[in-house]
Specification:
- It is elongated, with a radius of gyration of 20 Å.
- The chain starts with a helix and ends in a 17-residue tail after the last helix.
- The chain is mostly helical.
- The protein contains two helices and no strands.
- Helices cover 74% and strands 0% of the residues.
C-alpha cells in the first residue's frame, strides 16, 4: 500500500469516527446536557474539516500527464 493510499484510508476512517462520535454526542445531549451537544457540534465540524482536507489532498496528489516545459503535450512537435 502506498503512502498516498494509506493517507486516504486513514483520513477516511478518521472522518467516519468523527461523524459517529458527533451522532453519539448529539443523541446523548438530548438527555445529558449542553456539554455533550457542544462536543457533538465540535466533532461534526472536525468531520467536515476532514472531508475538505481529503478533497484537497486528492486534488493535490492526483496523477497528472507529463508535460514539457513549453506546455505542449508529450510526443507532439
Amino acid at each position: 500500500m502506498s503512502l498516498r493510499a494509506f493517507h486516504v484510508v486513514f483520513i477516511g476512517a478518521s472522518t467516519l469516527l468523527a461523524f459517529f462520535y458527533a451522532t453519539w454526542c448529539l443523541v446523548l445531549g438530548d438527555r445529558e446536557g449542553l456539554g455533550w451537544r457542544a462536543a457533538g457540534a465540535a466533532s461534526a465540524a472536525a468531520g467536515l474539516g476532514l472531508v475538505a482536507y481529503e478533497a484537497w489532498f486528492l486534488r493535490k496528489t492526483a496523477p497528472r500527464a507529463s508535460r514539457s516545459p513549453s506546455g505542449a503535450e508529450r510526443g507532439q512537435r
